[in-house]
Design goal:
CATH architecture of the largest domain: 3-Layer(aba) Sandwich
Distance between the termini: 23 Å
Largest sheet: 10 strands, mixed
Strand order of the largest sheet: 3-2-1-4-5-10-9-6-7-8
Strand content: 15-25%
Oligomer: single chain
Number of helices: 8
Order of helices and strands: EHEHEHEHEEHEHEHEHE
Number of domains: 2
Structural class: alpha/beta
Low-confidence stretches: 132-139, 256-268
Number of strands: 10
């Protein structure tokens, strides 16, 4: 059975990158892509309290006009969502991917992901959403909520797609980072890519053995992996490897232990993902 990708598009500047990364994954794995656009009810016109000194006749007339405006807004939101999905489908077709289905939903995006991720093998989201500008210092408002709630690998797309040939795995020996190593070793998505596995901290016998075990797992999967122990703070050390080592994709556990634990769902990792100019795959 072919894998399935759940790609979330919202019409933001990052949506094109989500589509292009989804197309890249689909071409390498034969996956079907399900494009989701979720209409946020919180962005619809708020319920209005028209109680007060307005005369009854005037208020009734106003209520009718406001109701008509709400209906028009709902229709426009639906049309806008369908247009986003059709543009995304066309973009993927241009990248050679035809096995694409579109889904327009209304509600909370995290609840939608929770309800639909069971049929997906990976979730793709943009680093920022349509509510955040390109220079905004924060990540998309739903980013952390989705990562916390999801039980599937989450692919966080950066601003622009570029070909991926070299992958870095941030490894700390924790359960999720071991899953990350196994995921890269087994998944055809990573076949033929250069792989580097690295940890941050003092080099001890235990650290070296853990890295050797990780490298052995990768080699069993056909990867001639490099293994490194990095000095210094994990965020800075890994960031330097990304910048100086020609890394195109970072894979890391969503939860870990020791010093790298703070890299995910914490101040250090949100800062790293925010500043990092490459996509990131987060493993649970």
């Amino acid at each position: 059975m072919s894998p399935t990708l759940m790609a979330l598009v919202d019409g933001s500047a990052y949506s094109e990158s989500v589509c292009r990364h989804a197309a890249w994954i689909a071409r390498r794995t034969g996956a079907q892509v399900k494009l989701y656009h979720v209409l946020d009810p919180r962005r619809t016109p708020a319920q209005r309290d028209l109680s007060g000194s307005i005369k009854l006749g005037a208020r009734s007339d106003l209520l009718e006009k406001l109701s008509a405006l709400d209906e028009q807004h709902a229709r426009l939101s639906q049309a806008h969502g369908r247009a986003i999905l059709e543009d995304a489908r066309a973009l993927m077709a241009g990248d050679g991917v035809e096995d694409v289905v579109t889904r327009l939903r209304s509600g909370d995006i995290v609840e939608t992901v929770a309800a639909k991720e069971g049929a997906a093998d990976m979730i793709l989201i943009g680093k920022r959403g349509e509510a955040a500008g390109l220079e905004a210092p924060h990540l998309g408002s739903n980013f952390e909520r989705i990562v916390r709630a999801s039980h599937k690998p989450v692919f966080v797309a950066n601003r622009a797609f570029r070909p991926i040939s070299r992958v870095l795995i941030a490894y700390d020996g924790g359960v999720s980072s071991m899953k990350a190593v196994d995921y890269v070793a087994r998944n055809p998505l990573f076949a033929g890519l250069d792989v580097v596995v690295a940890t941050a901290g003092a080099e001890t016998g235990q650290t070296r053995r853990a890295l050797d075990d990780a490298r052995a797992t990768l080699e069993a999967g056909g990867h001639a992996a490099e293994a490194h122990v990095l000095r210094g703070h994990p965020g800075k050390a890994l960031g330097e490897v990304v910048e100086q080592g020609g890394i195109d994709l970072l894979v890391m556990g969503a939860y870990g232990h020791s010093r790298i634990r703070t890299l995910v769902i914490g101040s250090t990792t949100t800062e790293m993902i925010r500043s990092c100019r490459i996509p990131v795959v987060l493993m649970r």
